[in-house]
Amino acid sequence: MGWRCPRLGERQPGGVETSNFQISEPVIVSVCFPFVATPPVGDISGSRASLGWADEASVPYANFAYNLRMPRILCVTAHPDDEAAAFGGSLRLYHERGAEIYVVCLTAGQAGSHRGLAKTDHELAAIRRKEFAASCEILGIDRGVVLDYADGQLHRVDLYKVVGDLIQHIREFRPDVMLTFGPEGGVTGHTDHSMASVFATIAYQWAGRENRYADQLLDGVTAHRTRKLYYATGNFVLAGRPPVSPPPITTVIEIGDFVKTKIAAFETHTTQAPVFPLVRDTILSRGPEEYFHLAATTEPGSAARETDLFTGLSAKD
Ligand SMILES: [Zn+2]
Description:
Layout: H1 62-65, E1 72-77, H2 82-85, H3 88-96, E2 100-107, H4 121-139, E3 143-149, H5 159-173, E4 177-181, H6 191-206, E5 228-233, E6 251-254, H7 258-266, H8 276-286, E7 289-297
Parallel strand pairs: 1-2, 1-4, 2-3, 4-5
Antiparallel strand pairs: 5-7, 6-7
Bound molecules: zinc ion (ZN).
């Protein structure tokens, strides 16, 4: 079965299937937000007016503006609530700056130890998909998808399948920048975070190769090289958690008051209420910054310290 977000194209269930992997089925998609004024994938014929920019001075990423399409960020997470806790401030900030934001979450979080009123894993998954949708709305995320891989078991899933799923999303959305966890698993060291990093990193590298998952290259879908890949990282470790060795900080994003937005988004995940005080205190104690590690780029060279995820990208891209 094949599926594509309605905003990304018209191909409906019944698409590509191979002996090696299966593209995401419709059932695994919980949210696909309607969105205003986005050119179709591969179409850069939009205009500033259609993007709602009033004048030259207000155009975010002016270097992209004459390219006539919006800059795009794809964020790959493991659980509903990661989008808020690990990336929320930056996602909202770049939404405000005019970027189109897409989050792919690999599991519905059905194995969570905090379960709210859910009596079964199935109920918890359904609740957490709704919480994810509410969080995405607060963060200004334009598209959000929760896939149906097994929570807590990402180290056991078929690598070829999940990487293929991610590559399909990359080739359709065609991001400029990708975000995910580092292979250490973020400050919590969660194995699902580690595996999300592994899958997203391989997908980042292979999405641009025509000899990888070549059976996806149909109906106008082409290989896509994303310009930069970042891992969320930090300048601290959490007490009482598995030891982690965080990727060095290359990029500091000032999120300002969006630190509050990030907390508000996290607190839409009401099944996780027992950890709200801890998460709130942790976020507030770290201040209005989020840290990233530039893990890969299409421009080889030394990493310079950055304050913008789009540094170095230009209209010719
Ligand atoms: Zn998580």
